[in-house]
Design goal:
The chain is built from three helices and 50 strands. The protein is mainly beta and 505 residues long. A hairpin with a 2-residue loop joins strand 49 and strand 50. The relative contact order is 0.06.
């Protein structure tokens, strides 16, 4: 301790010496623009061109004041410069566009931070180059139609960083390119509910560290984590994965997490779902080529679900996902509770799951051979590895073998048949390549034609019919003598009377 304490103190002194000068606005109820700040001596803001301003000092805007980023403004921030705002009188949503960038090659600014907001803050139509944005809560933030280019992690490890408990956050229609670390994330002790939809993340986490592109913590009473319709294109790097939602500190709560209809390619892993008290619903995702981990013991799964305590184990419902080209398709670890398909119960049951997951070319050689780039080897297949003691239902799925025979499926599932200490995977009945699997005998025919139209023949006139998507949402309710016009493609479940049929449109 006698050695460490002086060194620690020296580190603090060096940090303080390297800190930027700070300009603080008056706190007298004035809403400033950067043009206004440029007219104030000592503000650190200088006008260098039409709507172009350099900022060489940290700016602090107390709660009584406000700051506006006007349309077509460009801010050029100096090294480590942070614009920090309290309260709710700020406007960083220009009508068309604005840019927050660095003041020269090799200069790394921090960016902007909002804290102690008591109403929703919007950041829209802003291009961030190097810089990022941090939200301190407790009110919501909305980030839309923004670009984050080569975020440098000076403001934190996330280009969009949730640093305070909050609910109602949204990130939509944003583009992230070559961020040094994660595109979006929250600290392990931060409960920030967020909807992340319709974004593109390309070659993020370029520092090649264990920071996934989306790195979230569940939010319990602060709302669900919803990650939907995003495209994540990895950079074929050995360390960063695509999406992680982890309750590392075992925060107690009813944590709802929905991950659906995302497209993931060329990451170390697809989904990492880790911790306790979480309820995951994973549907309709395409997860490809998660095989860049050089040692398969350390990762490379399309989906991993890991929980430790049986009393508060996390559970996952998976349906309609496509998992191909990974070291492992799905890995279940510890006490995780999984439903990958259960058509042995009535379609109205909460446990009902049509399955519809498909697996192809997943496998590994157990370790990376000397001189090999990866451990990827589909000739040693692993579609589902049940490394838990629990029975797992995985009915109605299409496995990656030459056919769907027991012998071929068993090659691809590791469970009780391979290790008596593990739980059994119940995989029959399997799905079919035609996309139709019947739960029980039927006395009717289903025809599919056109753009999602269905007719039912052979059942009694007036028999009730319901159609659900793979997530269990009702798409149609009627009777058999009607043509069902869904106007969509994909996997659905048709319930005729008490019998359920899985149909690919």
């Amino acid at each position: 301790m006698k050695v460490l304490l002086p060194l620690l103190a020296a580190g603090i002194a060096l940090s303080a010496a390297a800190a930027n000068e700070v300009y603080k606005t008056s706190n007298e109820g004035i809403v400033y623009t950067f043009a206004d700040l440029a007219k104030i001596e000592g503000s650190g803001v200088t006008k260098t061109g039409e709507n172009i301003y350099t900022v060489e000092k940290d700016i602090e805007v107390p709660a009584n004041d406000g700051l506006t980023l006007e349309n077509n403004t460009t801010l050029r921030l100096g090294a480590n410069v942070l614009i920090k705002m309290w309260g709710n009188k700020h406007n960083f949503a220009p009508a068309d566009t604005a840019t927050i960038t660095s003041n020269g090659d090799g200069v790394m600014p921090k960016g902007i931070q909002f804290t102690d907001m008591d109403k929703t803050i919007e950041v829209k139509h802003v291009r961030f180059e190097g810089a990022g944005v941090k939200f301190g809560g407790p009110a919501a933030s909305i980030v839309e139609n923004c670009t984050f280019y080569e975020h440098n992690d000076k403001i934190g490890h996330y280009a969009i960083n949730y640093a305070g408990h909050s609910m109602g956050n949204e990130v939509r229609h944003c583009y992230f390119l070559r961020t040094a670390m994660s595109a979006i994330g929250a600290g392990a002790n931060i409960a920030a509910g967020v909807v992340i939809e319709d974004n593109i993340m390309e070659d993020c986490s370029t520092a090649n560290r264990n920071y996934p592109v989306i790195n979230e913590t569940p939010a319990a009473d602060n709302g669900p984590i919803i990650i939907r319709r995003n495209k994540i294109l990895g950079g074929k790097r050995l360390m960063p994965g695509a999406i992680s939602v982890s309750n590392m500190l075992s925060m107690i709560g009813d944590h709802k997490v929905i991950i659906e209809d995302n497209y993931i390619d060329n990451s170390r892993y697809g989904l990492n779902l880790m911790g306790h008290y979480m309820d995951f619903r994973v549907t309709g995702n395409t997860i490809l080529n998660c095989h860049y981990e050089s040692n398969s013991v350390n990762g490379g799964s399309g989906v991993t679900v890991y929980s430790q305590s049986a009393d508060n184990a996390s559970k996952v419902y998976m349906s309609g996902n496509r998992i191909e080209g990974c070291l492992w398709g799905v890995t279940l670890v510890g006490t995780a509770v999984a439903n990958l398909g259960n058509i042995s119960v009535d379609a109205s049951s909460a446990d009902y799951n049509p399955g519809g997951n498909s697996f192809k070319n997943n496998g590994n050689c157990g370790k990376a051979p000397e001189g090999a780039e990866t451990a990827f080897d589909p000739s040693i297949p692993y579609d589902l590895y049940n490394n838990t003691a629990a029975t797992v239902y995985a009915q109605g799925n299409v496995w990656g073998g030459a056919d769907q025979s027991d012998a071929e499926v068993e090659k691809r599932i590791f469970h009780k048949a391979d290790d008596a200490n593990l739980g059994e995977v119940i995989y029959k009945p399997v799905g079919t390549t035609s996309g139709i699997s019947v739960a029980g005998e039927d006395n009717f025919d289903i025809s599919v034609y056109g753009d999602g139209a269905i007719t039912i023949e052979g059942a009694a006139v007036g028999t009730p019919v319901s159609v659900y998507d793979v997530a269990g949402s009702l798409l149609y309710s009627g009777v058999t003598d009607e043509t069902i016009q869904l106007g969509r493609k994909g996997l659905v479940v048709v319930v005729v009377g008490s019998k359920a049929v899985r149909v690919a449109l």
